Amino acid sequence: MTAPLRGPGFDKLRQLADVVYDPWIEQTPLRVYSPEQLAERIAAESADIVVVEGDSVRGPVFEQGLIAIASTRGDPNNVDIDGATAAGIPVLNTPAPAAARSPGHAVSMSQTPMLAYGDARVT
What we know:
Layout: H1 8-16, H2 35-45, E1 49-52, E2 68-71, H3 81-86, E3 91-93, H4 102-110, H5 113-121
Parallel strand pairs: 1-2, 2-3
């Protein structure tokens, strides 16, 4: 997770999964991953789900075998929705004020694989 998160949804996610929490805002200088950098990080962590706020999610990220991408932005313009859909990866988003709910949303989607598969096929 490169998005800053908090709250009961995040706590629940930590109970259910191995979470790598490395928010961009806590880096000095601030860090936003390019698609190549994010793909490398996903591969290094063997991540199944990525939760981002500002990182660029395109191209090589979709080759990492993700089951879901969650964005804490109301308008996930940092995510190539068409590319993710073509790769069969559902994209979840919530407005920034609701960022605390994104981890829980990602968990619920990952536990419903057929729904996630269906969402990825919606045009």
